[in-house]
């Protein structure tokens, strides 16, 4: 296993597809061998999972709301329906995660609350000004969510992991966005420069809001850095962000958006 | 069978539940005994069904968009998720109807286009100014849609009817809205007066936009009045609107919103 800690120099030099963020994720930790009933006996782990599910749930609900909003920018009815389809898929993810929160005895609204400011802040700072920006945002958001779910799955007990992987499995509705963006750049190459800056801004906002969350939520952060079960490793959270950033940069390059 | 052509005098005198818009709908006509392949050999019937499905498809897509928008008015995250759930259900109705249009060889976007102005006009004229207005609109919209689907089902060939009934069967996500509205009126009775006026305005706009559609779309209108298969009956479309209005008035009265 190899950690990619230098995302910047990877954008111009695509490597083999095997070396993606997913494959570079750390091997399952001790907690991964446990089920929820076992793992939840540790109150700190339990709090971390409630935090994680709260963040994911509100992330999905906010994504629903924003995709539905951005669908208004669509130039045709069928384009609109494609974004509406993604929005609807996000809503169903929200439902799954909310139901799981209820199942483990947590109050879903209360679990989501700590993440409202950061996620609303992200969306407020990144309201697309046109349809192409909306498409790039849909694609980038979908991809970062996939990467994050995949990263975090390895750190979870078997039951929670199963939920996260189920949601992940239903992600990837954004492929239509790639084609549209590619076609727009082919038709007018200077559009690429503008969208490259936009994609960079999206990632910058996502990272800055994530860091805000990490700073605020101790239990969640410790789990993300592998702290709860396996001893602290603060450098690991940085590496996780790096892997996600690098995967993003590669995807943008593949799309013709070298940042 | 009895036609209720005087909706106004029914609001204060609830009748037996059996006498709803659904039961007062006309008996299936000759076309109801045919399947799509048979019925569609009549080009006027085929055009009418494409129109109908186009109107329903865009109606669902526009409802999705507006419910997602109105979800922003929700006072709590769980209230927001309830409206998002309705929005998502409308999107799935849209998908079913769009797929059917494709299946019968029609261009879905083209079929929807003639109804965009009327439906967008309706939503533009009826943007709720607060959460309670949003809830009343969700409930009224859902109910009117149910009534209309049920009315129109009787006029369709077996295959199209099956689709319309399947969508109808999945309608009725608005019951949460009733409880919330009732509780708000109990807590502050004068809210009822404002919401009663609001519900009246919703129905007025719905009717005026429907009449615009009926005036524009000959084939659709003729089917709605039973014209295609069974000879013209222009009075029947008026009676259909009356039945739907009456059912609406009764529902509002039951909700404590005597208009």
TrEMBL record, chains A, B:
TM segment ranges: none
Pfam families listed in its UniProt record: MiaE_2
Ranges where the Ferritin-like domain occurs: 43-227
Chain spans, region Disordered: 1-25
Domain of life: Bacteria
Low complexity bias spans: 10-25
InterPro entries, sorted: Ferritin-like (IPR012347), Ferritin-like_SF (IPR009078), Ferritin_actino (IPR059125)
Protein name per UniProt: Ferritin-like domain-containing protein
Species this chain originates from: Streptomyces lacrimifluminis
């Amino acid at each position: 296993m190899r950690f990619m800690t230098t995302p910047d120099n990877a954008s111009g030099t695509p490597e083999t597809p095997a070396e993606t963020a997913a494959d570079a994720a750390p091997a399952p930790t001790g907690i991964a061998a446990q089920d929820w009933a076992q793992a939840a006996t540790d109150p700190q782990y339990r709090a971390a999972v409630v935090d994680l599910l709260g963040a994911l749930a509100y992330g999905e609900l906010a994504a629903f709301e924003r995709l539905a909003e951005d669908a208004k920018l669509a130039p045709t009815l069928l384009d609109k329906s494609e974004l509406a389809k993604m929005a609807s898929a996000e809503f169903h993810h929200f439902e799954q995660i909310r139901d799981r929160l209820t199942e483990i005895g947590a109050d879903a609204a209360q679990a989501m609350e700590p993440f409202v400011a950061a996620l609303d802040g992200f969306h407020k700072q990144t309201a697309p000004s046109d349809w192409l920006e909306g498409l790039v945002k849909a694609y980038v958001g979908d991809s970062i969510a996939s990467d994050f779910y995949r990263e975090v799955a390895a750190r979870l007990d078997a039951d929670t992991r199963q939920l996260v992987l189920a949601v992940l499995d239903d992600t990837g509705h954004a492929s239509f966005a790639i084609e549209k963006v590619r076609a727009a750049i082919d038709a007018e190459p200077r559009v690429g420069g503008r969208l490259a800056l936009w994609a960079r801004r999206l990632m910058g906002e996502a990272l800055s809001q994530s860091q805000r969350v990490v700073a605020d939520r101790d239990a969640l952060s410790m789990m993300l850095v592998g702290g709860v079960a396996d001893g602290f490793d603060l450098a690991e959270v940085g590496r996780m962000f790096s892997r996600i950033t690098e995967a993003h940069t590669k995807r943008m390059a593949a799309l013709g958006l070298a940042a």
